[in-house]
Amino acid sequence: MLGTLICGTCFSAILMASCVNTTFQEEPVTGNVEREEPMIKFKAFSYIDAQGTGGEAFRFLMPSDWKFEGGITWILDLPAMPATAAFKVYNPNGAEAFEAFSNRCFFWTDNQFTLGLNPPGSRYFGMEVRPPLSAVDALQQIVLWPARGNRRNLQVISADALPELARAVGAGKMGEGYVQSFGDGARLRITYEEGGVQMEEEIYGVVEGMYFPIQSMYGTTTNIIWYMDYLFSFKARQGELKNNASIFQTITSSFRLNPQWYARYSNMIEYLAQQQIQRIHSIGELSRMLSQMSDQMRSENLAQFEARGKAFDQGAQNFSDYMLNIDRYYDPFEEREVELPSGYNHAWVNNLGEYILSDDPNFNPNVGSNLHWENMKRN
């Protein structure tokens, strides 16, 4: 069951971003308003898990002049969650950025003997020993201060519970039999100064976990394994965050986790649990083990993978495309729907997965290019 809960959370922050950025709402435009947006180009980015599987782990769209920093880290002493992702997608010529923070895994118990051997702050099978927190408190104590605590003039403008976020990702629904589960979501709105620039940022996250009753000759005690996941943020210069909402939406809604990578990750967790391996001794050993893992998912893991994907897609669909400034187009090369920023009259795509949005009716990216561009139709 532990492996079941962990599977699928490594990149969940990115996936759910498309479902919850309701803060970036524009007022409906009335009357005849003419505007021309500058042309924008998106490129497909593919992340290769060089440290672990050696293959593609995920891909998404990002503005062609933005940069990617970070990636997957394999954790040798945490068999319950042997890999996590932390990265930033940012504008090197501006202040805008989307950031995904590493998931966290914790253990707690009311068994005083166990706590005596493993006091708060220590590690229990690689998990930090710490009592569960609400999502609001966890975001402030575990994410905010380590990540942004050194920023000048840091202020928490608001700290809001988001139970709808927890419900959207199915947090609190993993309990079976005597095992009870819980889930909680939250959002922080902060401002601070960074490099002489006044910034605004929104940080999102979910706390979820399970209670395990443990029978012994001394009675029943309860162990708790809980996680912080779906951890991500959007930031920009103060006053410009909502103007970049459609770019952030494009990044997150285009995210695709590679099912072969996910299969090896899932199979690795199950193998470590079955063999009761508490620690992998080297990255080389990890890579050899991963190379022996199947890239095919067991039926129950595949069902979970598909179910979570459907939940993410449905969550995104539930928000107004107009309010989120998103248009849907049909990509003839990938033969699927893509979401791109609205406000443009023309959208083009090539077979490399690059997109150009323009308002110029005379613009044709095929002119002077050795690539083949197709004009996309809105869905």
Describe the fold and architecture.
This protein has 379 residues and is of the alpha+beta class. The protein has two domains: 291 residues, no CATH class; 54 residues, no CATH class. Helix content is 26%, strand content 37%. The protein is built from ten helices and 19 strands. The strands form three sheets. Strands 3, 4, 5, 6, 7, 8, 9, 10, 11 and 12 form a ten-stranded mixed sheet that branches. Strands 13-2-1-17-16-18 form a six-stranded antiparallel sheet. Strands 15-14-19 form a three-stranded antiparallel sheet. A hairpin with a 4-residue loop joins strand 16 and strand 17. Helix 2 packs across helix 6. The N terminus is likely disordered.
Entry summary:
This protein has 379 residues and is of the alpha+beta class. The protein is 26% helix and 37% strand. It has two domains: 2-27 and 58-322, no CATH class; 325-378, no CATH class.
Give the uncertain stretches in residue-range form. 1-35, 311-323
Succession of helices and strands = HHEEEEEEHEEHEHEEEHEHHHHEEEEEE
Assign an overall shape: globular
What is the rounded Rg?
22 Å
